[in-house]
Structure formats: structure tokens, C-alpha cells
Design goal:
43% strand, 44 residues, 4 strands, mainly beta, four-stranded antiparallel sheet, globular
Length: 44
């Protein structure tokens, strides 16, 4: 399980440490975080 925190306006990824990885049933999802960022979670 991994993840990237993306900036919604620029699409640039920021520090992974700021992304809380959550165990989920879905293989991938976009989990809302503090604006203007979102976290893309994926299982590998």
C-alpha cells in the first residue's frame, strides 16, 4: 500500500509523509484531505 499527496492546482506531488495511508477495500481512490491537496491511495 502506498500513496501520493497531490496539489489540486498544479498536479505536483508533495511530501508522502503528510499522507495518512488508510487500509481500504478498494484498490484505488482519491481521499479528500486539507485543501488544496488530495491523497491518491493505491495498493501494490
Amino acid at each position: 500500500m502506498g500513496g501520493l499527496v497531490m496539489n489540486k492546482s498544479t498536479g505536483n506531488h508533495v511530501k508522502l509523509a503528510t499522507c495518512v495511508i488508510v487500509i481500504i477495500e478498494n484498490d484505488a481512490l482519491i481521499r479528500p484531505l486539507m485543501e488544496p491537496f488530495y491523497c491518491v491511495l493505491f495498493s501494490e
